[in-house]
């Protein structure tokens, strides 16, 4: 960011200098800190994390472990960025929050008072009271401590079982595989990540898993983790009674909001910390955003719990504006608009992007699927009423975010999109283009 | 309640490394890979025997058994290595490997490569070059080829050319296999292989054979600083119609530079045509992650590369003034400066440091910090070109693979995570940032006009003036 933007006009200085404390330096906390500094050049900003001295990219954890990068390569900014922005980084854990007194107690270093507080404490891996889940060798994959733990657990391990067929599970499998440990993925559903991916896409990911030499057990559920006699995991047993040797058991069956700190306070929580559309909690001058926040929705609509990287960043930027706003008066603070849903992932060598709404297993949604006859490439266009395009799933190809967003927000119809599909392609130069084939095949599949 | 396991977390993530994998039993090497190594080893042994001076020395058979086996063994090794993996980015364990992460083996490799340059530049007699009589030792091992292609006995420079070209071809095979999922990398690798073999090695040597002025056809002033110096022009104009062609070629490339750069960016030269770029993109590829991507390095880079550009401009102008005034203005001074530039910049910087330090400072040391041609191309690219790296919406997740594997030390992530397109003078357009990005966020492209690259780029002069102040990102 340029320094010029930090000089704000005099008129915004009506409010006195405040001290904002941000709990958590994940993408939500870090995005909020940077945005808040832009909006409030003279406020004091303190960001607290016990995990790392500087904000880093958590999705890059796997790359540190498999040796693509060093830890320092995953930092969001150069170290000098934070003092330049006058954002104070505190390496500590907050262990107690006194909301009415606006005071935090830290594990290592005393107490800290704030004028405004942002809870960006993230989430924790789910554990479903499986027998043996506290044995050594059993772990999740969330932060740096898990990376260290995994490194230690790898010592002497030959096989691993990973419970849960999501994004983290496959990352963990790739990590273990790189260390010569044979991982098997235990997936409850009939296909990989099939609560999110339609069948064709899930099968494609399954093929990539096979090709990499990683085991995949579908329709299998964990019953028990077996002690090897030393207090360490030695095997698992599935509900069907199958026994798999495993010195490492990865638990990657999703995450839940981390409510450790707010559990002892009066702040209202359900699944996560409840916030309004300005990401304000029920307590005065306390906000929550990212993985830990649950946004209230009016009427029948289900509360919003968004736990991916992109929404974390979006909520972080928005909450900064909300915190910077002068008062709680209506219209003074912005309200959170999640915008177009998009996400992306990489399963081993296979890239995946999704835009808009693509429901798994059809569920009352018509969609058209094209896939390359031999290469790992596929494209799905999901449809809404009147042939309006509702979303895209792109596998083994890259598509242009801006174009997809525009088409979806303009409510373009299938014909238009198929006519212009090539404009959305974002593959590297010289890669073969399949859009004409896709359009023909999709048109042919319609009555 | 805070989880006590969390509070027990106590280590320094900077020092931790999370790295050295515990020693896992490695599977035994398959037979075909052993054979590749055997071929390489046999080649090295034959080479050593020939340097010692056996009957094989200086024969075609000797050349085939030594250099042939080494090249073939290494190529097959890389072929087999990557053929055994699924197509895609294979960077596992790079930072755990001593040779690739400035460990003891990396330093050894750096010392070896630097040592080779030192021998070639300053101790040719050690390599077996002799001014009066047939070559011996290492130089003699390529003598039959030199006789065939140039009509002269082999010299250290001929040996250097053979080694350089072979390295690009052999490691080009590695690039083909490593990036067999990417047409962009395959095509640009084929391009540097063709330009090095044909334009920079075969044709120039044939010029020697036919007693014509020497010239590398992919070399451009000011990288090849003397191609438009008066002395070289004397050679050209003294060589008849063909000499005139060479002169037009040399000037033509200088003129073509801004035009091609406008349409395609700097990459048309730096990672498709240039010999230095060719070596960096092939032999140097394993070390690209060592390029420093800090803001400090960027500052040093800008000062150094533009100083070299200023120096070569000054030398060129002074030589021409000298020539036109028959030495009245500078006397012998410009000749001395010419020698100085040729030695310190042309030899020491571009060779000894530029290539010798690949395993320590990354594979583009010369291109980043020294090359005046890159400086000129960079100025055009930054201010008047259609080329850019497009960031795909807000999809960056800040992992850092792009910045880590950028050989030019560009902090690509710092732009991508702000959803900004990347327009940087130093980008050579190798395309690796786009390949290593696990979310498909980056794409090299030539925009329809230079104006659609970023705000303000339709006013290159304004942008240039603005950039003269030290910019604070």
From TrEMBL, chain A:
Pfam family name, one: Pyr_redox_2
Needed cofactors: FAD
Presence of the UniProt keyword Flavoprotein in the record: yes
TM ranges: none
Domain FAD/NAD(P)-binding: 19-297
PANTHER family according to UniProt: NITRITE REDUCTASE [NAD(P)H] (PTHR43429:SF3), PYRIDINE NUCLEOTIDE-DISULFIDE OXIDOREDUCTASE DOMAIN-CONTAINING (PTHR43429)
Family named by the database record: Belongs to the FAD-dependent oxidoreductase family.
Name of the protein this chain belongs to: Assimilatory nitrate reductase electron transfer subunit
UniProt lineage: Bacteria, Pseudomonadati, Planctomycetota, Planctomycetia, Planctomycetia incertae sedis
Gene responsible for this protein: nasB
From TrEMBL, chain B:
Transmembrane regions: 35-58, 64-83, 104-123, 157-177, 189-210, 239-264, 303-321, 341-361
Gene Ontology terms: cellular component: plasma membrane
A Pfam family annotated for this UniProt entry: Fer4_9
Molecular function in Gene Ontology: 4 iron, 4 sulfur cluster binding; metal ion binding
Keywords: 4Fe-4S, Electron transport, Iron, Iron-sulfur, Membrane, Metal-binding, Transmembrane, Transmembrane helix, Transport
Source species, domain of life: Bacteria
4Fe-4S ferredoxin-type domain mapped to chain residues: 387-415, 418-447
UniProt xrefs under PROSITE patterns: 4FE4S_FER_1, 4FE4S_FER_2
Protein name: Electron transport protein YccM
Organism in which the protein naturally occurs: Engelhardtia mirabilis
Originating gene: yccM_4
